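Can anyone check this?
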Amino acid sequence: MRIALAQLDCVVGDLAGNAARILEAAADAGRGGAHLVVTPELSLCGYPPEDLVLRPAFLAACRDELERLAGRISGPTVLVGYPESAPDGRHNAVAVLRDGKIAATYRKRELPNYTVFDEERYFEPGREPCLIDVAGVRVGIVICEDIWFPPPARTARDAGAQVIVVPNGSPYHTRQQALRRDVVTARARETGLPVVYVNRVGGQDELVFDGASFVVDGKGELAQQLPAWHETLAFAELDGAIPKAVRGSLDPRLEPNVYAALTMGVRDYVQKNRFPGVLLGLSGGIDSALTLAIAVDALGRERVRALMLPSRFNAAMSLEDAKTMAGILGVRYDEIAIDDVAEAYRRSLAEEFKGLPEDATEENIQARIRGTLLMALSNKYGSIVLTTGNKSEMAVGYATLYGDMAGGFAVLKDISKTLVYRLARYRNSLGLVIPERIITRAPSAELRANQTDQDNLPPYEVLDAILEAYVEEGVSPAEIAARGIAPEDVAKVVRLIKIAEYKRRQSAVGIRITPRGFGKDWRYPITSAWAEWKTVSA
């Protein structure tokens, strides 16, 4: 048997476009001699469709499109994911398209309801296995989360399956590729059956899907590995129910995968939402430098514009390095000084602020002037503003509402400051684009004289260690301190995380690359008397 693994980028809501992609993949698979084509989870409507599936008109349109697609299928059997409206409720389903009709349907049994997933909100679980005969081999179908639990695969085996195929919509995070492999290996060993795992690829709002589809044999050994971060159609050869080994591997390094996730996230968000391009404030600092590099790699220099918005507090090296980097990348670069505007604010507020010392208020005015200017250009030309703040800053509120937080897409929202530096080094290893001085100088917001980030924050190595433990691992403050981090630093950071919640709620959507980012999988109340930082003893 020959199975085509269609690792596709299906756009949420583009029913006709997705049907065309599936039909093209089926035609290519047929020409390649495939007997079965496996497309990703909910491939017809795109994944995740979220509250679209609560709209009866959307479900009806999906059904109509599925029937039209079925009528055009000839040759290989094709598995297509779609949201099914049935008498017992909605289902996350896979339709078996064969000989111009819908020959069978499988309904997902295990509905994830954690981190970024809310499938219990949308779907009812299925109960029955689904087996189809393909080229004399009995193929069992399960969907994504089903493979993470023993019963669905075991039920398919007990019903007579010789091979298990798994359409997936599994988002990327830094530990997910290894987790998937471990889980699928366990199911293969438990059942003694080979597993064909097909994942979608592409960006969808805060989520990025890496593809990285693969095949394991009945002992759980890797037989075939598809590439990550690319649409592709690949063929798995099975001798009866035994897959033939094919070369293929994934790059296990963190930086290449995260960088690919960020470029894909930017490219797909901009293109799928039909923005003509992007613009960003280029400060001469590391965060905006990395954001600019990602934007150019994602979209090409013609669709990227950089603005330097200097004040009297910006060091000469900031302007020099920003201009140098823009020249290396070949993007349009302009400077708009903000001192005159800031002075107008000071005059307007002089009577109100009379006798009061300058503080963060005056600093934030500068940031908000920059945000206003960038948004004005966005409104005038239609390009979306990329914000440049990182996860470390967003965690502790080291950012200005309507200032550096102003924009439509937050590229580094889930990237810690220490990882920003690693990614900058990685990008330069492919070809120098970020001037060395940007990487080596002390980070500063440059909103007052001689300012550095560490005036207000612990060193980033300490801050990021606390954030990883508290935010991503769920470790208590006391346990973090027991790891050797100063209790006063732990208490300060945990307190800042709590009081910055109102800012994060107003931040732009951004790309999720860790097991827990500040998006759908972070849902803490803004108004809360819980003060966990007080549990740390000095």
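Reply from J.R.: I decoded it. The first helix runs from residue 15 to 31.
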